[in-house]
TrEMBL record:
Keywords recorded for this protein, A-Z: Signal
InterPro entries attached to this UniProt entry: M28_fam (IPR045175), Peptidase_M28 (IPR007484), Secre_tail (IPR026444)
Any one GO molecular-function label of the UniProt entry: metalloexopeptidase activity
Domain annotation Secretion system C-terminal sorting: ranges: 389-458
Annotated signal peptide: 1-20
Protein name: M28 family peptidase
GO terms classed as biological process: proteolysis
Protein source organism: Pontimicrobium aquaticum
Length: 461
């Protein structure tokens, strides 16, 4: 192995040897690029794709927001471990009848499924765009769901996106009333509403709370999350806090809840509140990213991560799942997460460069790793394109030709049943292998060089 190869191998090992996730690890996966893309699409600044069509979600007023609701469903449906409920409702409050759609994604707890924590935001508006109110809260929910849906939790997490907040908190009222009537065990509600404007750059944010049903404990848990996260944010606790957002109906039903968002307490809310001038250009994305991180830190802590490791370690020759004693299925990230047939071991040896992930199952918990880029098969020219294995099918003699610069390679031939029928060193550029003693069938011809293995399927006739 030459010096360049040694450097590449060491860099690869250092870059992809990962440890089990912590809440801090998950918090640091919040991507400002992803937040920016989503909030621009959802507020109508950029086009989006919904059900295969290119669209612009310019207006999300309750009478005109089916496109927005469909966008949310499509986003959430891509994530693991979530059950999506398009909660359409028709309800009469007072003399007015309302029709709306709450979009609810439930991540069922593996140990205490009846213990529920809700993180929520309203997605409807009163005008076009409305980036801060409340594409910001909606985008934060989508980003948190994207990250946490890769994990298993002891408790249930509900990602809720309410309709008709602007019409009088209708969607959340409908849900909270039903939960109260059903006796649901909701242990905490974090409502995100307007969380991306910070004109003076002081990083202040508000927690609105009242001494109702343990809501002060939710507030204290967020303060603990702020301390433990190390984020550069400054909190204003507003008590008694406003009841003018979706947390209010959880208070009314005896559930602990708080509102979190930009600092109305310091008069630092968006100046374009409830107008079509509430645009992406007014947002502080660094501030918004940190508030999203804090929200994730809180809800992941309360969800209680199960100790399952879905990370991987990659070397120059293979990728290994770090979780022992599990069931594994390797996936091709470059082909829409397609299952790779027969690749169900803890260690996977790719036959070509690309991006790969592993699905790890322990009991009822199913987690999927991040995709890992594997691109070392062409180091020193050791790749499938540089090695010739022919003819295929073979009747008697199989020819193998390897590049001149490959030394000390090892050949092994394994039957479809997993029995190794031949193993020998390859000590020259061109060799012949006598297949005539072998029974007809499928064989795997494996060529190993300096910790890297290439595998060829050969048919004996």
């Amino acid at each position: 192995m030459n010096k360049l190869t040694t450097f590449i191998v060491m860099t690869f090992l250092m870059s992809f040897a990962m440890s089990a996730q912590t809440v801090s690890d998950l918090m640091n996966k919040v991507s400002q690029d992803t937040l920016t893309k989503t909030i621009r699409e959802f507020s109508g600044e950029d086009q989006a794709t919904v059900n295969g069509s290119t669209v612009t979600i310019l207006n999300r007023q309750s009478a005109n927001n089916d496109l927005a609701a469909n966008y949310l469903i499509e986003k959430l449906s891509k994530y693991n471990n979530l059950t999506i409920n398009d909660q359409a409702y028709t309800v009469t409050y007072g003399s007015t009848t309302y029709n709306g759609r709450n979009i609810i994604a439930t991540q069922l707890g593996k140990t205490n499924p009846d213990n529920i924590y809700i993180i929520c935001a309203h997605y409807d508006t009163v005008a076009d765009y409305c980036a801060d109110d409340n594409a910001s809260g909606t985008t934060a929910i989508l980003e948190i769901a994207r990250i946490l849906s890769t994990q298993c939790f002891d408790n249930t997490i509900v990602y809720a996106l309410w309709d008709e907040e602007e019409d009088g908190l209708v969607g959340s009222r409908y849900y909270a009333n039903a939960a109260g009537a059903n006796g649901d065990t909701i242990l905490g509600v974090l409502n995100l509403d307007m969380m991306a404007h910070d004109s003076d750059g002081d990083n202040d944010f508000d927690i609105d709370v009242r001494n109702i049903a343990g809501s002060l404990t939710v507030k204290d848990d967020i303060l603990t999350a702020l301390t433990n996260s190390g984020l550069n944010l400054n909190v204003n606790v507003v008590n008694p806090g406003t009841a003018a957002s979706d947390h209010a109906w959880f208070w009314s039903n005896g559930y602990p809840a708080v509102l979190m968002g930009e600092s109305w307490f310091n008069n630092d809310e968006t100046p374009n509140y409830h107008t079509a001038n509430d645009r992406f250009s007014d947002l502080d994305m660094d501030y918004f990213t940190d508030l999203t991180k804090l929200s994730l830190y809180y809800i992941a802590t309360k969800g209680s991560l199960q100790p399952i490791d879905n990370t991987v370690t990659a070397t120059v020759s293979n990728i290994s799942a770090n979780q022992p004693g599990a069931t594994y299925q390797w996936l091709d990230c470059d082909n829409n997460m397609t299952v790779i047939p027969s690749e169900t071991g803890q260690t996977f040896t790719p036959s070509s460069n690309g991006n790969y992930a592993v699905e790890v199952t322990v009991g009822s918990c199913v987690e999927v790793s991040s995709c890992v880029n594997f691109n070392t098969l062409d180091i020193d020219g050791f790749n499938k394109e540089s090695i010739e294995v022919f003819p295929n099918p073979v009747t008697s003699k199989l020819n193998i030709k390897i590049p001149e610069n490959i030394h000390k390679a090892m050949l092994s031939i394994v039957s479809i049943e997993g029995k190794e029928v031949l193993k020998k060193p390859i000590d020259k550029q061109y060799i012949e292998v006598d297949f005539s003693p072998f029974s007809n069938g499928i064989y795997f011809v494996n060529i190993e060089n300096e910790g890297r293995t290439l595998s060829y399927k050969v048919v004996k006739e």
